[in-house]
Amino acid sequence: MDEEYDVVVLGTGLTECILSGLLSKEGKKVLHMDRNDYYGGDSASLNLTQLYRKFRPGQEPPSELGRDRDYAVDLVPKFIIASGELTQILVHTDVTRYLEFKQIAGSFVYREGKISKVPSTEMEAVKSPLMGLFEKRRAKKFFEFLQNWKDEDPATHQGINLDKDSMKTVYEKFGLEPGTQDFIGHAMALYLDDDYITKPARATYSRIVLYTSSMARYGKSPYIYPLYGLGELPQSFARLSAIYGGTYMLDKPIDEIVTDSQGKFVGVRSGNETVKAKQVIGDPSYFGAGKQTEGKIRVVEEGKVVRAICVLKHPIPDTDDSDSCQIIIPQNQVGRRNDIYIAMVSSTHNVCAKGVHIAIVSTIVETDKPELEIAPGLKLLGPIHDKFVSISSVFTPTTTGHDDNVFITRSYDATSHFETVVEDVQDVWKRVTGKDLVLEKKEVEVQA
Protein backbone atom coordinates (compact mmCIF):
# COMPACT_ATOMS: atom_id res chain seq x y z
CA MET A 1 0.00 0.00 0.00
CA ASP A 2 2.28 2.78 -1.19
CA GLU A 3 -0.32 5.44 -1.92
CA GLU A 4 -1.04 8.15 0.62
CA TYR A 5 -4.54 9.13 1.68
CA ASP A 6 -5.88 12.39 3.06
CA VAL A 7 -7.87 10.56 5.73
CA VAL A 8 -8.06 7.00 7.07
CA VAL A 9 -11.36 6.26 8.83
CA LEU A 10 -11.46 3.35 11.31
CA GLY A 11 -14.76 1.67 12.14
CA THR A 12 -17.99 1.72 10.12
CA GLY A 13 -20.35 3.06 12.78
CA LEU A 14 -22.82 5.68 11.60
CA THR A 15 -20.70 8.62 12.81
CA GLU A 16 -17.62 7.38 10.96
CA CYS A 17 -19.56 6.57 7.76
CA ILE A 18 -21.25 10.00 7.67
CA LEU A 19 -17.83 11.67 8.04
CA SER A 20 -16.30 9.41 5.41
CA GLY A 21 -19.14 10.19 2.96
CA LEU A 22 -18.99 13.95 3.59
CA LEU A 23 -15.18 14.10 3.30
CA SER A 24 -15.20 12.06 0.05
CA LYS A 25 -17.89 14.39 -1.33
CA GLU A 26 -15.57 17.31 -0.47
CA GLY A 27 -12.89 15.75 -2.66
CA LYS A 28 -10.74 14.18 0.07
CA LYS A 29 -9.02 10.85 -0.66
CA VAL A 30 -10.50 8.52 1.98
CA LEU A 31 -9.64 4.96 3.00
CA HIS A 32 -12.19 3.35 5.32
CA MET A 33 -11.26 0.22 7.33
CA ASP A 34 -13.11 -1.96 9.83
CA ARG A 35 -12.02 -5.02 11.80
CA ASN A 36 -15.56 -6.48 11.48
CA ASP A 37 -16.83 -8.22 8.35
CA TYR A 38 -20.07 -6.19 8.44
CA TYR A 39 -20.95 -2.49 8.31
CA GLY A 40 -22.19 -0.51 11.28
CA GLY A 41 -19.77 -1.28 14.12
CA ASP A 42 -21.67 -0.66 17.36
CA SER A 43 -24.63 0.68 15.34
CA ALA A 44 -24.99 -2.41 13.12
CA SER A 45 -28.15 -4.43 12.45
CA LEU A 46 -27.54 -8.18 12.72
CA ASN A 47 -29.28 -11.18 11.22
CA LEU A 48 -30.24 -14.07 13.52
CA THR A 49 -26.99 -15.98 13.08
CA GLN A 50 -24.89 -12.89 13.77
CA LEU A 51 -27.06 -12.02 16.78
CA TYR A 52 -26.60 -15.46 18.36
CA ARG A 53 -22.90 -15.50 17.44
CA LYS A 54 -22.45 -12.20 19.26
CA PHE A 55 -24.45 -12.98 22.41
CA ARG A 56 -24.45 -16.81 22.56
CA PRO A 57 -21.40 -18.15 20.72
CA GLY A 58 -21.85 -21.78 19.67
CA GLN A 59 -25.66 -21.71 19.95
CA GLU A 60 -27.80 -22.01 16.83
CA PRO A 61 -30.83 -19.68 16.49
CA PRO A 62 -34.10 -21.59 17.13
CA SER A 63 -35.90 -22.51 13.90
CA GLU A 64 -39.27 -21.19 15.15
CA LEU A 65 -37.97 -17.63 14.80
CA GLY A 66 -37.95 -18.03 11.01
CA ARG A 67 -35.37 -17.31 8.35
CA ASP A 68 -32.03 -15.68 9.00
CA ARG A 69 -32.48 -13.18 6.21
CA ASP A 70 -35.76 -11.86 7.65
CA TYR A 71 -33.85 -10.28 10.54
CA ALA A 72 -31.93 -7.03 10.92
CA VAL A 73 -31.78 -6.49 14.68
CA ASP A 74 -30.33 -3.16 15.81
CA LEU A 75 -27.63 -3.24 18.47
CA VAL A 76 -28.34 0.38 19.40
CA PRO A 77 -32.01 1.42 19.56
CA LYS A 78 -32.49 4.86 18.02
CA PHE A 79 -35.14 6.54 15.90
CA ILE A 80 -34.72 9.46 13.51
CA ILE A 81 -36.46 12.71 14.47
CA ALA A 82 -38.37 13.76 11.34
CA SER A 83 -37.22 17.41 11.41
CA GLY A 84 -33.90 16.69 13.09
CA GLU A 85 -30.30 17.18 12.05
CA LEU A 86 -29.75 13.61 10.79
CA THR A 87 -32.66 14.09 8.39
CA GLN A 88 -30.94 17.24 7.09
CA ILE A 89 -27.69 15.32 6.51
CA LEU A 90 -29.53 12.49 4.72
CA VAL A 91 -31.21 15.00 2.43
CA HIS A 92 -28.14 17.23 1.94
CA THR A 93 -26.05 14.25 0.77
CA ASP A 94 -28.86 12.62 -1.28
CA VAL A 95 -28.30 9.42 0.69
CA THR A 96 -32.12 9.18 0.86
CA ARG A 97 -32.07 7.59 -2.62
CA TYR A 98 -30.61 4.40 -1.07
CA LEU A 99 -33.10 4.26 1.79
CA GLU A 100 -36.80 3.88 2.40
CA PHE A 101 -38.33 5.23 5.59
CA LYS A 102 -41.39 4.26 7.53
CA GLN A 103 -43.03 6.15 10.30
CA ILE A 104 -42.93 4.98 13.91
CA ALA A 105 -46.57 4.51 14.88
CA GLY A 106 -46.63 6.14 18.30
CA SER A 107 -44.73 7.74 21.14
CA PHE A 108 -45.82 6.81 24.66
CA VAL A 109 -44.94 7.83 28.18
CA TYR A 110 -45.20 5.86 31.43
CA ARG A 111 -47.00 7.68 34.23
CA GLU A 112 -48.37 6.40 37.53
CA GLY A 113 -48.19 2.78 36.46
CA LYS A 114 -49.85 3.27 33.07
CA ILE A 115 -48.70 3.78 29.47
CA SER A 116 -50.27 6.83 27.78
CA LYS A 117 -49.81 8.12 24.25
CA VAL A 118 -47.94 11.40 23.87
CA PRO A 119 -50.65 13.49 22.16
CA SER A 120 -49.93 14.15 18.49
CA THR A 121 -52.92 16.44 17.81
CA GLU A 122 -54.90 19.01 19.77
CA MET A 123 -57.81 16.56 19.79
CA GLU A 124 -55.64 13.85 21.38
CA ALA A 125 -54.33 16.40 23.90
CA VAL A 126 -57.88 17.26 25.01
CA LYS A 127 -58.70 13.57 25.55
CA SER A 128 -55.32 12.59 27.04
CA PRO A 129 -55.40 11.08 30.55
CA LEU A 130 -51.96 12.64 31.20
CA MET A 131 -53.52 15.82 32.59
CA GLY A 132 -56.63 16.94 34.42
CA LEU A 133 -58.95 19.59 32.96
CA PHE A 134 -57.37 22.66 34.63
CA GLU A 135 -53.86 21.41 33.96
CA LYS A 136 -54.76 21.00 30.27
CA ARG A 137 -55.67 24.70 30.17
CA ARG A 138 -52.37 25.68 31.76
CA ALA A 139 -50.44 23.39 29.40
CA LYS A 140 -52.31 24.87 26.41
CA LYS A 141 -51.15 28.37 27.46
CA PHE A 142 -47.59 27.07 27.84
CA PHE A 143 -47.56 25.52 24.33
CA GLU A 144 -49.17 28.63 22.81
CA PHE A 145 -46.40 30.70 24.43
CA LEU A 146 -43.76 28.47 22.78
CA GLN A 147 -45.50 28.52 19.40
CA ASN A 148 -45.92 32.30 19.38
CA TRP A 149 -42.40 33.11 20.62
CA LYS A 150 -40.49 35.44 18.33
CA ASP A 151 -37.02 36.53 19.38
CA GLU A 152 -37.43 39.94 17.82
CA ASP A 153 -40.87 40.65 19.35
CA PRO A 154 -40.78 41.29 23.13
CA ALA A 155 -44.59 41.26 23.20
CA THR A 156 -44.41 37.47 22.72
CA HIS A 157 -41.96 36.95 25.61
CA GLN A 158 -44.40 37.41 28.53
CA GLY A 159 -41.53 38.73 30.65
CA ILE A 160 -39.37 35.66 30.08
CA ASN A 161 -35.77 35.66 28.82
CA LEU A 162 -35.02 32.23 27.32
CA ASP A 163 -31.27 32.81 27.56
CA LYS A 164 -31.29 33.79 31.24
CA ASP A 165 -34.36 32.31 32.90
CA SER A 166 -34.24 28.63 33.83
CA MET A 167 -36.80 26.09 32.63
CA LYS A 168 -37.96 25.88 36.26
CA THR A 169 -38.91 29.59 36.07
CA VAL A 170 -40.88 28.97 32.86
CA TYR A 171 -42.74 25.97 34.33
CA GLU A 172 -43.58 27.98 37.45
CA LYS A 173 -44.84 30.95 35.42
CA PHE A 174 -47.45 28.67 33.79
CA GLY A 175 -48.12 26.78 37.03
CA LEU A 176 -47.39 23.36 35.51
CA GLU A 177 -47.58 20.33 37.82
CA PRO A 178 -44.50 18.08 38.38
CA GLY A 179 -46.11 15.30 36.31
CA THR A 180 -46.62 17.66 33.36
CA GLN A 181 -43.05 18.95 33.70
CA ASP A 182 -41.90 15.31 33.61
CA PHE A 183 -43.87 14.63 30.46
CA ILE A 184 -42.69 17.81 28.68
CA GLY A 185 -39.02 17.49 29.70
CA HIS A 186 -38.63 13.77 29.07
CA ALA A 187 -41.24 12.73 26.47
CA MET A 188 -41.00 15.87 24.31
CA ALA A 189 -37.67 17.62 25.01
CA LEU A 190 -36.21 14.08 25.37
CA TYR A 191 -33.87 14.84 28.26
CA LEU A 192 -32.39 11.77 29.96
CA ASP A 193 -32.42 13.35 33.43
CA ASP A 194 -33.62 16.51 35.22
CA ASP A 195 -30.41 18.56 35.05
CA TYR A 196 -31.97 20.72 32.32
CA ILE A 197 -34.50 22.31 34.73
CA THR A 198 -31.96 24.63 36.34
CA LYS A 199 -30.33 25.66 33.03
CA PRO A 200 -31.44 28.50 30.71
CA ALA A 201 -34.69 27.60 28.95
CA ARG A 202 -33.48 28.24 25.36
CA ALA A 203 -32.22 24.67 24.72
CA THR A 204 -35.44 23.12 26.05
CA TYR A 205 -37.53 25.52 23.98
CA SER A 206 -35.58 24.46 20.85
CA ARG A 207 -36.03 20.76 21.67
CA ILE A 208 -39.80 21.07 22.20
CA VAL A 209 -40.17 23.05 18.95
CA LEU A 210 -38.16 20.33 17.13
CA TYR A 211 -40.43 17.64 18.62
CA THR A 212 -43.68 19.42 17.74
CA SER A 213 -42.55 20.32 14.21
CA SER A 214 -41.45 16.70 13.66
CA MET A 215 -44.81 15.51 14.99
CA ALA A 216 -46.64 17.89 12.64
CA ARG A 217 -44.64 16.73 9.63
CA TYR A 218 -46.00 13.18 9.35
CA GLY A 219 -48.55 12.91 12.20
CA LYS A 220 -48.76 9.90 14.58
CA SER A 221 -45.22 10.30 15.97
CA PRO A 222 -42.17 12.51 15.43
CA TYR A 223 -39.98 9.55 14.45
CA ILE A 224 -39.07 7.81 11.21
CA TYR A 225 -37.05 4.63 10.76
CA PRO A 226 -35.27 3.05 7.78
CA LEU A 227 -36.64 -0.22 6.37
CA TYR A 228 -34.22 -3.14 7.00
CA GLY A 229 -32.85 -1.57 10.18
CA LEU A 230 -30.47 1.14 11.27
CA GLY A 231 -27.51 -0.74 9.74
CA GLU A 232 -28.78 0.61 6.39
CA LEU A 233 -27.69 4.12 7.42
CA PRO A 234 -23.91 3.55 7.65
CA GLN A 235 -24.05 1.40 4.50
CA SER A 236 -25.75 4.21 2.58
CA PHE A 237 -23.08 6.72 3.61
CA ALA A 238 -20.43 4.15 2.65
CA ARG A 239 -22.01 4.06 -0.82
CA LEU A 240 -21.86 7.84 -0.95
CA SER A 241 -18.15 7.73 -0.08
CA ALA A 242 -17.51 5.07 -2.75
CA ILE A 243 -19.26 7.18 -5.42
CA TYR A 244 -16.78 9.97 -4.67
CA GLY A 245 -13.78 7.66 -4.76
CA GLY A 246 -13.62 6.42 -1.15
CA THR A 247 -12.04 2.95 -0.67
CA TYR A 248 -13.50 0.40 1.77
CA MET A 249 -11.82 -2.56 3.49
CA LEU A 250 -13.88 -4.72 5.83
CA ASP A 251 -12.54 -7.60 7.94
CA LYS A 252 -9.20 -5.81 8.25
CA PRO A 253 -7.45 -6.00 11.65
CA ILE A 254 -5.95 -2.70 12.81
CA ASP A 255 -2.68 -3.60 14.56
CA GLU A 256 -1.09 -0.22 15.12
CA ILE A 257 -1.71 3.51 14.86
CA VAL A 258 1.68 4.65 13.53
CA THR A 259 3.10 8.02 14.72
CA ASP A 260 6.35 9.86 13.98
CA SER A 261 9.00 11.01 16.48
CA GLN A 262 6.84 14.03 17.43
CA GLY A 263 3.86 11.76 18.16
CA LYS A 264 1.95 12.91 15.06
CA PHE A 265 -0.14 10.39 13.14
CA VAL A 266 1.44 9.10 9.91
CA GLY A 267 -0.30 5.82 9.13
CA VAL A 268 -2.14 2.63 10.12
CA ARG A 269 -0.60 -0.84 10.20
CA SER A 270 -2.60 -3.98 9.40
CA GLY A 271 -0.45 -7.12 9.54
CA ASN A 272 2.73 -6.32 7.62
CA GLU A 273 1.11 -3.59 5.51
CA THR A 274 1.13 0.07 6.51
CA VAL A 275 -1.03 2.70 4.85
CA LYS A 276 0.04 6.36 5.03
CA ALA A 277 -2.36 9.23 5.61
CA LYS A 278 -2.44 12.80 6.87
CA GLN A 279 -5.29 12.31 9.36
CA VAL A 280 -7.10 9.45 11.07
CA ILE A 281 -10.71 9.43 12.31
CA GLY A 282 -12.07 6.49 14.26
CA ASP A 283 -14.32 5.22 17.02
CA PRO A 284 -12.87 4.91 20.56
CA SER A 285 -12.36 1.12 20.32
CA TYR A 286 -9.47 1.70 17.89
CA PHE A 287 -7.66 4.03 20.27
CA GLY A 288 -7.23 2.03 23.42
CA ALA A 289 -10.62 3.07 24.86
CA GLY A 290 -9.27 4.11 28.26
CA LYS A 291 -5.89 2.38 27.95
CA GLN A 292 -2.68 4.35 27.51
CA THR A 293 -1.33 4.51 23.95
CA GLU A 294 1.99 6.15 23.07
CA GLY A 295 2.17 7.50 26.59
CA LYS A 296 -1.16 9.34 26.42
CA ILE A 297 -4.69 8.39 27.36
CA ARG A 298 -6.78 9.36 24.35
CA VAL A 299 -10.16 8.08 25.55
CA VAL A 300 -12.00 8.02 28.90
CA GLU A 301 -15.13 6.20 30.03
CA GLU A 302 -18.07 8.51 30.70
CA GLY A 303 -20.45 5.83 31.95
CA LYS A 304 -22.22 2.65 30.84
CA VAL A 305 -25.47 1.86 29.04
CA VAL A 306 -27.42 -1.36 29.58
CA ARG A 307 -29.55 -2.60 26.67
CA ALA A 308 -31.84 -5.64 26.46
CA ILE A 309 -32.86 -6.78 22.98
CA CYS A 310 -36.16 -8.65 23.50
CA VAL A 311 -37.86 -10.90 20.97
CA LEU A 312 -41.65 -10.76 21.42
CA LYS A 313 -44.42 -12.72 19.72
CA HIS A 314 -46.91 -9.84 20.19
CA PRO A 315 -47.06 -6.03 20.21
CA ILE A 316 -46.37 -4.33 23.55
CA PRO A 317 -49.60 -4.29 25.63
CA ASP A 318 -51.46 -0.95 25.98
CA THR A 319 -49.91 0.61 22.87
CA ASP A 320 -53.06 0.26 20.66
CA ASP A 321 -51.46 -2.80 18.96
CA SER A 322 -48.87 -0.47 17.40
CA ASP A 323 -46.46 -2.12 14.95
CA SER A 324 -43.77 0.22 16.32
CA CYS A 325 -43.43 2.68 19.16
CA GLN A 326 -41.26 4.41 21.68
CA ILE A 327 -42.07 4.33 25.38
CA ILE A 328 -40.29 6.66 27.78
CA ILE A 329 -40.27 5.91 31.50
CA PRO A 330 -39.26 9.24 33.14
CA GLN A 331 -36.79 8.70 35.98
CA ASN A 332 -39.09 10.25 38.63
CA GLN A 333 -41.70 7.58 37.91
CA VAL A 334 -39.35 4.77 38.97
CA GLY A 335 -37.08 6.52 41.49
CA ARG A 336 -34.04 6.78 39.21
CA ARG A 337 -31.72 9.51 38.05
CA ASN A 338 -32.01 8.56 34.32
CA ASP A 339 -34.95 7.67 32.10
CA ILE A 340 -35.59 4.17 30.76
CA TYR A 341 -36.36 3.87 27.02
CA ILE A 342 -38.22 1.21 25.09
CA ALA A 343 -38.00 1.14 21.27
CA MET A 344 -40.09 -1.41 19.37
CA VAL A 345 -40.15 -2.28 15.67
CA SER A 346 -41.63 -5.22 13.79
CA SER A 347 -41.92 -7.09 10.48
CA THR A 348 -43.52 -4.00 8.87
CA HIS A 349 -40.00 -2.47 9.01
CA ASN A 350 -38.43 -5.61 7.45
CA VAL A 351 -36.33 -6.26 10.57
CA CYS A 352 -37.86 -9.56 11.76
CA ALA A 353 -40.17 -12.38 10.71
CA LYS A 354 -43.96 -11.92 10.58
CA GLY A 355 -45.60 -12.16 13.98
CA VAL A 356 -42.39 -11.14 15.74
CA HIS A 357 -41.68 -7.78 17.41
CA ILE A 358 -38.26 -6.60 18.53
CA ALA A 359 -38.25 -4.36 21.62
CA ILE A 360 -35.06 -2.88 23.07
CA VAL A 361 -35.06 -1.59 26.64
CA SER A 362 -32.16 0.66 27.63
CA THR A 363 -30.92 3.08 30.25
CA ILE A 364 -27.77 4.60 31.74
CA VAL A 365 -26.27 2.29 34.36
CA GLU A 366 -26.49 3.66 37.92
CA THR A 367 -25.77 0.59 40.10
CA ASP A 368 -23.74 -2.62 40.06
CA LYS A 369 -26.89 -4.57 38.99
CA PRO A 370 -27.62 -3.11 35.54
CA GLU A 371 -30.19 -5.72 34.50
CA LEU A 372 -32.34 -4.93 37.53
CA GLU A 373 -32.35 -1.29 36.46
CA ILE A 374 -34.28 -2.04 33.25
CA ALA A 375 -36.80 -4.29 35.07
CA PRO A 376 -39.55 -1.60 35.01
CA GLY A 377 -39.21 -1.50 31.20
CA LEU A 378 -39.09 -5.28 30.77
CA LYS A 379 -42.25 -5.58 32.87
CA LEU A 380 -44.23 -3.53 30.32
CA LEU A 381 -43.39 -5.88 27.42
CA GLY A 382 -45.57 -8.84 28.39
CA PRO A 383 -44.15 -12.38 27.84
CA ILE A 384 -40.59 -12.21 26.45
CA HIS A 385 -39.71 -14.99 23.99
CA ASP A 386 -35.95 -14.37 24.18
CA LYS A 387 -33.64 -11.69 25.52
CA PHE A 388 -30.07 -10.56 24.82
CA VAL A 389 -28.53 -8.20 27.38
CA SER A 390 -25.43 -6.08 26.79
CA ILE A 391 -23.61 -3.49 28.89
CA SER A 392 -21.58 -1.02 26.83
CA SER A 393 -19.17 1.64 28.00
CA VAL A 394 -19.69 5.15 26.68
CA PHE A 395 -16.27 6.50 25.70
CA THR A 396 -15.38 10.07 24.93
CA PRO A 397 -12.08 11.45 23.54
CA THR A 398 -9.72 13.47 25.76
CA THR A 399 -7.93 15.19 22.88
CA THR A 400 -9.09 17.41 20.01
CA GLY A 401 -6.71 15.86 17.46
CA HIS A 402 -5.12 19.19 16.59
CA ASP A 403 -1.73 18.18 18.05
CA ASP A 404 -1.43 14.70 16.53
CA ASN A 405 -4.02 14.49 13.69
CA VAL A 406 -5.89 11.72 15.54
CA PHE A 407 -9.61 12.53 15.63
CA ILE A 408 -11.73 10.26 17.82
CA THR A 409 -15.54 10.04 17.78
CA ARG A 410 -17.78 9.36 20.78
CA SER A 411 -19.56 6.09 21.66
CA TYR A 412 -23.33 5.85 21.17
CA ASP A 413 -25.13 7.24 24.20
CA ALA A 414 -28.44 6.31 25.81
CA THR A 415 -30.53 8.86 23.90
CA SER A 416 -33.36 7.45 21.80
CA HIS A 417 -32.54 9.48 18.67
CA PHE A 418 -29.56 10.50 16.53
CA GLU A 419 -29.25 14.19 17.42
CA THR A 420 -26.17 13.64 19.64
CA VAL A 421 -24.58 11.55 16.86
CA VAL A 422 -24.95 14.52 14.51
CA GLU A 423 -23.49 16.87 17.15
CA ASP A 424 -20.46 14.56 17.22
CA VAL A 425 -20.25 14.56 13.39
CA GLN A 426 -20.36 18.38 13.39
CA ASP A 427 -17.72 18.56 16.13
CA VAL A 428 -15.29 16.13 14.43
CA TRP A 429 -15.91 17.77 11.03
CA LYS A 430 -14.90 21.15 12.43
CA ARG A 431 -11.81 19.68 14.12
CA VAL A 432 -10.72 17.87 10.92
CA THR A 433 -11.51 20.57 8.34
CA GLY A 434 -11.37 23.75 10.42
CA LYS A 435 -14.82 24.88 9.20
CA ASP A 436 -18.48 24.43 10.15
CA LEU A 437 -20.62 21.79 8.46
CA VAL A 438 -23.31 23.62 6.50
CA LEU A 439 -26.40 21.70 5.35
CA GLU A 440 -29.23 22.56 2.99
CA LYS A 441 -32.81 21.85 4.05
CA LYS A 442 -35.23 19.72 2.03
CA GLU A 443 -37.93 17.12 2.72
CA VAL A 444 -37.63 13.35 3.21
CA GLU A 445 -40.23 10.99 1.76
CA VAL A 446 -41.78 8.59 4.25
CA GLN A 447 -44.17 5.67 3.92
CA ALA A 448 -47.31 6.10 5.97
UniProtKB/TrEMBL annotation:
GO cellular component: cytoplasm
GO BP field: protein transport; small GTPase-mediated signal transduction; vesicle-mediated transport
GO MF, any single term: Rab GDP-dissociation inhibitor activity
A Pfam family assignment: GDI
PANTHER family referenced in this protein's UniProt entry, alphabetically: RAB GDP DISSOCIATION INHIBITOR, RAB GDP-DISSOCIATION INHIBITOR
Similarity remark: Belongs to the Rab GDI family.
Name of the featured protein: Rab GDP dissociation inhibitor
Lineage summary: Eukaryota, Fungi, Dikarya, Basidiomycota, Agaricomycotina
